[in-house]
Amino acid sequence: MHTITIEDIAEALGISKTTVSRALSGKGRISEATKEKVRKYAAEHDYQPNVMARGLAQRRTYNIAVVTPDDNETTALAFFHRCLVGIISGTEEHGYDVLITAERGNRVNELERIVRNGKADGVILARTFIDDKRIGYLTENNIPCVVIGSSQVEGVVSIDNDNVGGSREMTERLIKRGVKKPALFGGSSEHFVTAQRLEGFDSALRENGLEIDEDLLFMDMHDKKVLEDAIATALAAGADCLLCMDDDIAERTLKICKAKDVLIPGQVSVASFYDSPVLEQTAPAISAVRYDGQSLGRKAAETLIKMIDGVGVSDIPMEGFEIRLRESTR
Amino acid sequence: MHTITIEDIAEALGISKTTVSRALSGKGRISEATKEKVRKYAAEHDYQPNVMARGLAQRRTYNIAVVTPDDNETTALAFFHRCLVGIISGTEEHGYDVLITAERGNRVNELERIVRNGKADGVILARTFIDDKRIGYLTENNIPCVVIGSSQVEGVVSIDNDNVGGSREMTERLIKRGVKKPALFGGSSEHFVTAQRLEGFDSALRENGLEIDEDLLFMDMHDKKVLEDAIATALAAGADCLLCMDDDIAERTLKICKAKDVLIPGQVSVASFYDSPVLEQTAPAISAVRYDGQSLGRKAAETLIKMIDGVGVSDIPMEGFEIRLRESTR
DNA sequence: ATGAAAGCGCTAACAG
DNA sequence: CTGTTAGCGCTTTCAT
């Protein structure tokens, strides 16, 4: 049951290990004839290279490490898991595997162990902290690294959803359908993504000749009471559309409106800049911008592997989105 | 920036590589004195063994592989992600790391690559198929393997939630609070877990001197219409409690009841045998049995590592649960 | 109790 | 174009 080695092939074919190695890797000059011969034999005998040996020899693990949030919030977790699936497929296609570790606050410990042990050639960070120690550690030690989501740090490669574009397009589509006075309910104003969504909203208004009304902008809608008040204010001011920056805010907005017997979409439209499966299940279903975690992850993996292979990565386009219009807007 | 090796230690201390290796691993006869000396030096100089080299020498990777479902259902995904976090912590504590790959149907390909490449010493399967090819492959090749969830296959170690116990206790608690005529709405009757939940329900009724009423048992409640009819039937028959086998059924049940102006818990109680964060957010919040994915994962990891280390694992107790009584039951 | 030497399977100069 | 020769860092006989 011993699996076949490069040496077995060499013996069987009466050539040297080196030649076999070259034939298989395609590096160095080698005749087509022997290359074919070797590859054929390898394929027939189902040769599998021993990654440990290769790793030891060329100081490469052919693993990338992914740091997952040990979060507990269901939709965030699920989104990250979809990213993960994308990362895995992107990685495996290039002959790499994925080593996973969990975030334990803004610490470098796990990462350090993995990297120092030589268990991974690069790292994907699923989420970053303000003043992230891990990023510091990785850049100092010259370890290739890609961040998912917007990174505030200069010089760090990040793969992100097109939050500006998505928010702009959703806003624009609603304006085209007759919205004149949209109100915006945002999440934490410390988050980068909040600023991006605001920017998209803002530019859609401008481009469509609408004034931005500061009185209809509400940020940090974490608390239930705060959101209720904001909605009341917006409706009193004659808002005809409630734009929510994420699915959570959107769902709560819907509940509040229902409780107040505000008709949706009859009286006002409701839409979200961030989709999640719950929004399809509400009554009425809420229109939202949908991002695809899986392709985000896949692109992160591909970019990282390019970096590991020493291929320069120039600017990375944002990941796309899809506008899903549902019953909450007309 | 070169990290220190076993040879460096040997040279510095004027002893041989072998001795250092023995001092560090604790294998073989060695004097306390030199052992201490070596360990002290290693610690001071922050020695990190090169896992590749060790792996190559002793045909061990110190990795375990986890196969994740590439599912898309949000709460299932989130639950699995919590398991994953548990797996990671259980694994890292024992000096192992986690390699992750995604399921692509009932195939062995990815697994085979990982195992044949010698990238992992054992496998955790997050979900199994009827007639699972991966299990066949793993057992045939003598690769240690642990399954999360109930495994139908004889001889395969599985780590599972105590579905019977949880369902029984929830049912019993409700009976103690006055329920006399509970109806049960189940998921797919082909799933093992459905049978387990039914068993728990059944035994709670028996133990509390209640007759089981076949007319109040409804399985395969996938379709909306089917569930509506079932609920109508149950209510007409005088059911005073609607027990749902999972969070999805429970949420839909709640909606249907609201639409029919059935008061909860005034007229009937509603509870679920499987909790998820959405159940806390419904109005009224739904009582449910809560399982802890993280400790499930941790136990799976620990069990697998024992198997890898050749420690026999005898019978594994089920993972516990917690009954969360909320507003939907009185 | 310690050391010398021979691998584990592969890659990478350096010759030819 | 191909082979020879050293390693990569660690473990493991087998001597001493």
In short:
The structure is a homodimer of 330-residue chains. Chain A has 330 residues and is of the alpha/beta class.
What does this molecule look like?
The structure is a homodimer. With about 325 residues, chain A is an alpha/beta fold. In chain A, about 45% of the residues lie in helices and about 15% in strands. Chain A folds into three domains: about 5-50, no CATH class; about 65-160 and about 295-320, Response regulator (Rossmann fold); about 165-290, Response regulator (Rossmann fold), CATH 3.40.50. Chain A has 13 helices and eleven strands. Chain A has a six-stranded mixed β-sheet, sandwiched between helices. In chain A, strands 2-1-3-4-5 form a five-stranded parallel β-sheet, sandwiched between helices. In chain A, α9 (about 190-205) links the parallel β6 and β7. The radius of gyration of chain A is 26 Å and the shape is elongated. The N and C termini of chain A lie far apart (about 65 Å). The mean pLDDT of chain A is about 90. β2 (about 95-100) of chain A pairs antiparallel with β2 (about 95-100) of chain B, so a sheet runs across the interface. The structure holds a DNA duplex (16 and 16 nucleotides).
